[in-house]
Amino acid sequence: METERTIHTVARDHAPNGRDHPPPPAARATTETGRTIHTVACNHVLNGRLNRGLNLVHSVLRLKRYGAYCNQSVFRKMVLRARKPRVTALFFSTGSMVCTGAPRREEGDAFAEFVVELLRTRTDRLDLALHSLELVNIVCPADLGGEVDLDGLAAKNSDCVRYQRRNFPGAQMWHPANWTESEKITLLIFKTGKVVATGGKSRENNEAAIMRALPMIEPFISRQS
I need a labelling partner for 44 at 20 to 30 A (CA). Which of 11, 99, 105, 216 fits? Predict the structure, then answer.
């Protein structure tokens, strides 16, 4: 039966021909100065809503064998995790849900549908259904290939870069050139040369935002010996 499978098999069982999806290929872009940027879309964030609310205590008891537990930090929620891929589903008593960690959109969709099927059969709520599951964000990391002088970057571009090392180890860049009518992409830049693009709804848009911001960042990237 569908609900007898362990959660960590869900990605394989929903994949074409029952096989695991290969990891998303890394993308490479070369700047005018010859610097190569590597990016990988590693985290699709999906929001959805059930057609009715949940009794979290009852749901956790029924799904405990699948690793479900209740997390009461900030907002009370039920948490279920998959092992491969490492996708996490969060369910709230209102019926709202968040699915995060999926390297591909279809893997997030499959895991969300699988968990809802568990809830439907294990809690005897056969009318339970998942509505309006939509992609709200893709978090895309990249490697700039050298350490970044964050103090210099923030001082030179104070209109669009904020760096407060006591509060956060990275600089935040929000450049209007990276924004569209539907997306406002923010870059988190770290001293190690790692940069994370967040706010986009496609890998291509996140990569384009990094490339547009690169002329501002590149003067502050140290060359590797």
Answer: 216
The answer to whether 95 and 54 are in contact (CB under 8 A) is: yes
Q: What is the DSSP track for 82-139?
A: -SSS--EEEEETTSEEEEEEESSHHHHHHHHHHHHHHHHHHTT-TT--EEEEEEEEEE
Helices and strands of the chain, counted as H and E runs = 5, 12
**How much is the pTM?**
0.73
User: pLDDT tens across 157-194, in order?
Assistant: 999 999 998 999 999 998 777 777 667 899 999 999 99
How far is it, in rounded angstroms, from Cα 89 to Cα 112? 7
Domains and CATH numbers, the chain: 2-24+45-135 (3.30.310.10), 144-220 (3.30.310.10)
- Answer whether residue 53 shows pLDDT above 60: yes
Q: Is 50 exceeded by the pLDDT of residue 5?
A: no
